Amino acid sequence: MDAKCNFSVWWRHTNDFTWNSLSGGTVGLKPVPLQSLSELERVRLQDVAFKRLLRCHDLGCHITIPKCGHKHKKSLRRKLDSLSKEKSKDKDTTPQAFGIPLSHVISNDRMRKLRHDHPREEHSDPTELMLSFLHLTSSYKRANKELSSSNSSLSSTSETLNESPLPSTPDIAPRTRRRGGVSVDCITDLDDNQSRLLEALQLSLPEEAAGNTKKHHDKKLSLNPIYRQVPKIVDQCCQHLEKYGLQAVGIFRVGSSKKRVRQLREEFDQGWEVYMDEEHSVHDVAALLKEFLRDMPESLLTRELYTAFINTMLLDFSEQDSAIQLLLFMLPPCNSDTLQRLLGLLSTVSAHAEDSLDSEGHKITGNKMTSLNLATVFGPNLLHKQKNSDKEFAVESFARAEESAAIIGVVQKMIDAYDAMFMVPPDLQNELLMSLQETDPDVVDYLLRRKESRCS
């Protein structure tokens, strides 16, 4: 076994993905979905995947971890402000979905939901209730300690118990803004009962304030899985196509009604509640989804990783899937979550490409959209450096035809290997935990205890 760390009750077997504790607990690491990781783990996974990529794959280009969110915020805001002044319209005319950064779209969705559910959330937000409970519990513990060591009268003790929660009560509200989870720095203050209560809250909310200027290392990262960051328009389009469009021949290639697509676009951009049912043409919805991806200021696979993704096609065939997966793990959560939702749809569509027979032996016509056809349609929308004009997104004009073929190859591999692409393998989890153990051993202890309790 490796030498035990002085600050941790857990250690791992050499050349194994099993961790043991002094109390006799054992956790064997198994593949887990990316979205099941906590916010802190996902941020650390970006760095671990980056180092693994440099160590194991020579992509022949400079690689950096994409930054989350607001790269185009200032220029976009100035552009929208000037446009607003020229047209003498109020700020509600700012697009809510199309042509704005992905993180802003998700933030807009979240704010609309908060406004819609405000009366209910104000009284029943599970995060606020949990934090209030933990705060009051710790306050009463301090009060009990003071009681046991004090010679004061019963009446004065009663006053202490009644008043102790009040002075620090205002701290509860700011802490609930920290993505909905208890911050890393206070995890060691939790006893077993509080830890179990913390585990009951499985989701933390994404960053809601688009204008947050805090540096990355100053943020408090949650130990719970973050809220799934997929724009509502993407999720609704995917659900509609999965329900009504799987047998539509040429889905994503057959033409649509420009008028109806424009109407749907305007409804989403105005922040309306849009309902799509069987009356909506699947080809209109498919066109709307492509248009959303095409109009994003930054491609879903990010500009920083453009060349890296392209160069994965130059590796040996056996290395390509692994390199692509590591690049996916380097994406910001909003990008990877949205990509996962989209690829889930495309994988399902491609599974219905060929003709088949129903239970009674009748022929079911396939949609003809294989993974190659889908990759050809979506590749330029998912991976590009910049747009060539206001109405066209594509690979830059000087790019070679080989790059276009590589883009299609990358997206096709993502569709074909969708089930495995977003599963974090044990060896990578092991590196992640070892990385955390160097800086946050208490966090490793908490995460492994949670894994142990789930296994048992």
From TrEMBL:
Q: Where does this protein have compositionally biased stretches of type Low complexity?
A: 147-164
Instruction: Kindly give the CDD domains that the UniProt entry links to this protein.
Output: RhoGAP_ARHGAP6 (cd04376)
Q: Where is this region: Disordered?
A: 81-102, 147-180
Listed Basic and acidic residues bias regions: 81-93
Cellular component (GO) terms are: cytoskeleton
Q: Which residues cross the membrane?
A: none
Q: Which residues form the Rho-GAP domain?
A: 221-422
Which InterPro entries does the record cross-reference, listed alphabetically? ARHGAP6_RhoGAP (IPR041852), Rho_GTPase_activation_prot (IPR008936), RHOGAP6/36 (IPR037863), RhoGAP_dom (IPR000198)
| Keywords, alphabetical | GTPase activation
4Fe-4S keyword on record = no
GO biological process terms, alphabetically, are: positive regulation of intracellular signal transduction; signal transduction
The molecular function terms in GO held by this entry are: GTPase activator activity
Q: What is this protein called?
A: Rho GTPase activating protein 6
Could you tell me which species this protein originates from? Amphilophus citrinellus
